Amino acid sequence: MATQGTRIESPDDSNLNKEKFYYSHPSHQNQQILTNQTSITRREVRRKKTKKIEKFKNACKKTTTFLFSRVGLCIVCIGYVAVGGLIFRSIEGSYEDEKMKNKSLVGDLVNIRTDNLVHEIWNMTKFEKVFHEKNYTSKLKKKLIEYQKNLTDAVKDGYKGSLSYNATKWTYPGSILYSVTIVTTIGYGHITCETDTGKIVTIFYAIFGIPMMLLCLANIGSSMANLFRFMYARVCCGYCNYVKRRNIRMKAAATLSSAAAAGQANAAAAAAALSLAALTSNNLISHASADEKQNENEKFSKTADATELIDLIDETNVVDYKKITVPISITLFVLSSYVLLGGILFKTLEEWTVIEGVYFCFITLSTIGLGDYVPGNSINDTDTQAELKLVGCSLYLLMGLSLLAMCFNLMQEEVTAKFKKLAVRLGIIDDPNYW
Question: How far, in Å, CA of 414 to CA of 421, rounded?
Fold first, then answer.
């Protein structure tokens, strides 16, 4: 029996209540729809954010890969030097401009002192009734020595021979050369920062710039070494290999003809073995692995006649240019030629001798940087000429350091190859490709 207060519902009543529930509360359906739409929208937003993050990560990876590539490093270094020139020009150039504004122009000072000297000499001559050589020359000598000291001070302040010339060191080309001398560790010392801000910026500029420039020069040197090795293999070694192959073909033909005249059997196989040994000894066959060597032996052992042997000699794989080493004498010749050409170039641009130009190029490329010879410091140079000389010096310096890195790379490979051959002869190692 049912107790009081309890209601027994039939299945029809439950269905009816459900219908009443649904029909009596339509807002729950709208709320559920809105909830579903909100969740879908959130998922889409998350997917879009995830896609954006993935795109950003891929862009960062591509950018990093490009920046550490050879081309990317060159662009970064050039931009680093250019931005450094702008920074030092803005810091030290503004200070230099203020310094020049606070005092009279150097050219005007020299002009005034020159006029004063002329007037003093004229007054000495005008009011001197009796000329005594000793007295007159001693007075004149004192005046000239004083003028000489004043002129020397004016030259130290930047005077270059023009009476109205206001010399400025921190031009943009001068700032670029200063940036180049910092990142290449040369440091001529002809121009230095005078402000505390410039000195602090120089420290941090060198901390980040020197490793970047060394890495860039190493990559450029490796690329130039590959290019030079390729040219050496195709130009210099190409003719030598042609002459060696021609001699091997002639010896093979002579061996076959003499064997055929004597009626010997397997003459082609004997000639093929001799040709293979000659090709290998003359470094005309590349054996990167034992399988390739076995394949070459099988080809020559299956040779049947003279025509096939001659064709096989011509078709053998030439040694890869990457495995060819350039003699040290050639690299030293290239480096010496670059230094000599630079000496002739700076002799033409500056009032130097060839010895002085060669001395400057060697001191520069060896990153010694004594600073006793610097382009663009001639008294007769105009602003445009001095700036062009500074830009040319920067380009010569960067190209020369890249060439120096290339020569060091080639010489290192040559020395390594020589030590490998020596180790094989001494029996220290069996395989020259061990290292």
Answer: 11
